[in-house]
Design a protein that fits this description.
Layout lengths: L1 E4 L2 E8 L4 H13 L4 E10 L1 H16 L5 E3 L3 H10 L9
Parallel strand pairs: 2-3, 3-4
Antiparallel strand pairs: 1-2
Helix pairs in contact: 1-2
């Protein structure tokens, strides 16, 4: 689930394949509405689709000429990024 709080999106619940399409679309809409950060501290579960969603948000921000920060990424996301060799690409802030 996504909740916009100022210029930050608070993501809660699972970030898994089941909800990836909706999370991507909601995040892209938030970026278009001037959001610059995604706080993942309330994410309860991740799988590899979480990386795809975060990178999709990053692409959307770049296409709009904006920078994006990911705050409080869960350890499971960081571990997946390390396994896939993409940890340096995560827009952490």
């Amino acid at each position: 689930m996504i909740r916009i709080s100022g210029d930050c999106v608070e993501v809660s619940g699972p970030m898994t394949m089941a909800g990836a399409r909706a999370l991507l679309a909601e995040g892209e809409a938030a970026i278009a509405a001037e959001v610059s950060a995604f706080d993942l501290k309330a994410v309860t579960e991740t799988d590899s689709s979480c990386l795809a969603v975060v990178f999709g948000w990053t692409r959307a921000a770049m296409a709009a000429g904006k920078s994006l920060r990911v705050l409080n990424p869960p350890q499971s996301l960081l571990s997946l990024a390390a396994v896939y060799g993409v940890a340096d690409l995560l827009p952490q802030g």
